Amino acid sequence: MKAAEPRCAQHRRERGGAHDSSCKRAVVYGSRQAGSALGCEQVPLSPGSDFGPYRIIAPLGRGGMASVYKAYEAGLDRYVALKVLPAEFLHDPDFAERFTREAKVIAKLEHPRIVPIHAFGIDEGIPWMAMRLVGGGTVASLLTSGRLAHRRAVAILDETAEALDHAHERGVLHRDVKPQNVLLDETGHAYLADFGIAKLVEGSAVLTKSGMISGTPQYMAPEQAQGEKADHRTDIYALGIVAYEMLTGRLPFTADTPVAILMKHIMDPIPIPPISEVPEPLTRVLLKCLAKDPGARWGSAISFVDALRQAAGGGPVDTLRLAAPDGLAETPPPPSAVGKTARGRLRRRGWGLGSGQRRWSLLLGSRQPLP
Hints:
Layout: H1 9-14, H2 32-38, E1 50-51, E2 54-62, E3 67-73, E4 78-84, H3 95-107, E5 117-123, E6 126-132, H4 139-143, H5 150-169, E7 182-184, E8 190-192, H6 197-202, H7 205-210, H8 222-225, H9 232-248, H10 258-267, H11 280-289, H12 301-312, H13 337-348
């Protein structure tokens, strides 16, 4: 069997081209940023190679926390999406146990709008999950052509919200809701993928040692950006960012560095989209979802989307409580104690706010599609 194994280019150079699988820098990973931070080059699984019970067909996507491949499972005569995590995480003695525990929790999420996990394990020193292969692309691929029609956006958000609320009712958070994780089938129906992956890796000693965190700054809620405890409202905020992007064709916050984006989520008001793009009733629904204070957001993902649908249909939205909500003014507020506290937290975590001051690096979710 032609097996793909973790390889480390630097280790091969040090050994005159020979590979030693015990190399502590060896990793199969999808993020070049992460590879640089961990001190090795990532070498992908090769098409045609065998990995456990699967034959690798082709790469599907790469992200900060995993690489995804189309693979064939001969025993059941089916194609799957094979997600492999970096072998480097196994240097954390607790990771294997945590991986198994979290994978079992995720596998129990049975809902028509959640991508199911068929199997999981650790082979050749690499953690992996085999999931249903959804072949219609992602919402991220849709957005490359610009903003979506209101009806189309609400339909996708509705199915995504069903998946989120189902998980939340069972005590499971997603922690990385973004267009790349909303998959589409050939008929256009939406499915939410990658439940729990962020939680799975964020406690890794490898990340702690290297100063990395998991997540995607463009979609992080303020409390998540500050390292505070997340709950279902953290996912609802991220869904609101996805909705904003779907309705406007752009993200509310962009910047040159990840830290600058996080600071905007914490401190800056949400930019009000032009009425020509998003009518005022829809904007009001979005702003409630994107409140800085989790307590001011919608209580569930479905309630948020129901309000969007009502607003898109021209009806009044009577359930909003937007009298001077936190952080939603059209002009930036003056520096506040909240802002100073946020800066202090980021500095204590090792994140310098100026150019050249950042000592820690971020493990970012790639904006490439991850089927």
